[in-house]
Amino acid sequence: MNCGECVYGCTDVVLRTTLQKFGVEVTYADTTNLESVEAAIKENTKLIYFESLTNPTMELTDIAAISKLAHEKGILVAVDNTFTPPPEVYPLKEGADIVLHSCTKYINGHGDVISGAIIGSTELITPIRKGVTSKICGTTPSPFNSFLLLRGLQTMELCMARHCENGMAFATLG
């Protein structure tokens, strides 16, 4: 597995400790540099994982370029799109195979739900749904948490527009 050098701290812990217990080898690369990603690919690489906009350094990765490179080599691409959810970025349209979201952040928008989502083709998602880890981790939200997520989705587009306006205003300060 290849992974971006900059990922959310808890993700990094899972990659460096938990997955290694299951024999998963993780190679890190600067995903903002396509040559670095290509150089990190090994014969046993099955997946390239990165964040579309990294946490905490806010580096942007070219999803389409990495997806093209990966698919030429028969490698899947998984993108954590937590910081750039729709309507901002659509990784599946850019060629990614799997998209992950922490719904706790922008999708919920109110900070009162702990939830996540994995999006992809039926072929890729079914084994995840049927796997023992999803049964242990509890992938079915309660009705109330589902209500809270739906409430957040009602204003998500407006909130994301305001986030973008504020970000641009801050970025262009003098």
Automatic annotation (TrEMBL):
Coiled coil: none annotated. Its cofactor is pyridoxal 5'-phosphate. The keyword Transferase applies. GO terms for biological process: transsulfuration. One of its GO terms (cellular component) is cytoplasm. GO terms for molecular function: carbon-sulfur lyase activity; pyridoxal phosphate binding; transaminase activity. The keyword ATP-binding does not apply. Pfam families: Cys_Met_Meta_PP. Keywords: Aminotransferase, Pyridoxal phosphate, Transferase. It comes from the Bacteria. PANTHER family: CYSTATHIONINE GAMMA-LYASE, TRANS-SULFURATION ENZYME FAMILY MEMBER. Belongs to the trans-sulfuration enzymes family. This is Aminotransferase class V-fold PLP-dependent enzyme. The lineage of its organism: Bacteria, Bacillati, Bacillota, Clostridia, Lachnospirales.
